Amino acid sequence: MATKEALKIHEVVKYPDPVLARPGVPVTVFDAALKTLVAEMFESMYVAQGIGLAAPQISLSQRLTVIDVSFKKNPKDRLVLINPEIVETRGKQVEEEGCLSLPDIREKVQRAAWVKVKAQNERGEWFEVEGEELLARALLHEIDHLNGVLFIDRISRLKRELVLRKIRKMQKNGEW
Ligand code: NI
């Protein structure tokens, strides 16, 4: 039996890294390397204290994301979504949102209240997942990442300007 190697913890890139604005390409190879990458993404997400992480956030322009809205409390909440697509949405919710690529930035974002998503798992099999409230928000936020969209693209121009000003100030102070 092979020795279990330590999983690589990937650095999460921050806005305005161009990889975050680039749509990811579909995953086509479902092999052992993909399984390792998924495991690394979960670990990297937990280290960064996040509940969702998309491949572009670790500089990989691919349609792959992991989510765990219970942050390790419930193993059933661990979701791997490869090449996900939104099937259906219902209603709306407005809640504060954050992103590991936009540390310390939180803004209210309008999202669907319920969503049905189809995606492939690590073996390439298609499945469907439905989510409401926080899970709906996480699913939509992470799928946005795979399309090169950040939550600050979904707030008003005025609020975005204020956010960008705050980021520039932090960059200037070496805090970003
Ligand atoms: Ni994010």
Describe the protein's architecture and organization.
The protein is of the alpha+beta class and 176 residues long. The protein has 3 helices and 7 strands. Strands 1-2-3-6-7 form a 5-stranded antiparallel sheet, sandwiched between helices. Strands 4-5 form a two-stranded antiparallel ribbon. A hairpin with a 5-residue loop joins strand 6 (114-120) and strand 7. The radius of gyration is 16 Å and the shape is globular. The site of nickel (II) ion has 5 residues, from helix 2. Nickel (II) ion is lined by residues 99-101, 141, 145.
Could you give a short description of this structure?
Helices cover 26% and strands 26% of the residues. By secondary structure, it is an alpha+beta fold. A hairpin with a 5-residue loop joins strand 6 and strand 7.
Q: What are its keywords?
A:
globular, binds nickel (II) ion, five-stranded antiparallel sheet, alpha+beta, two-stranded antiparallel ribbon, 176 residues, 26% helix
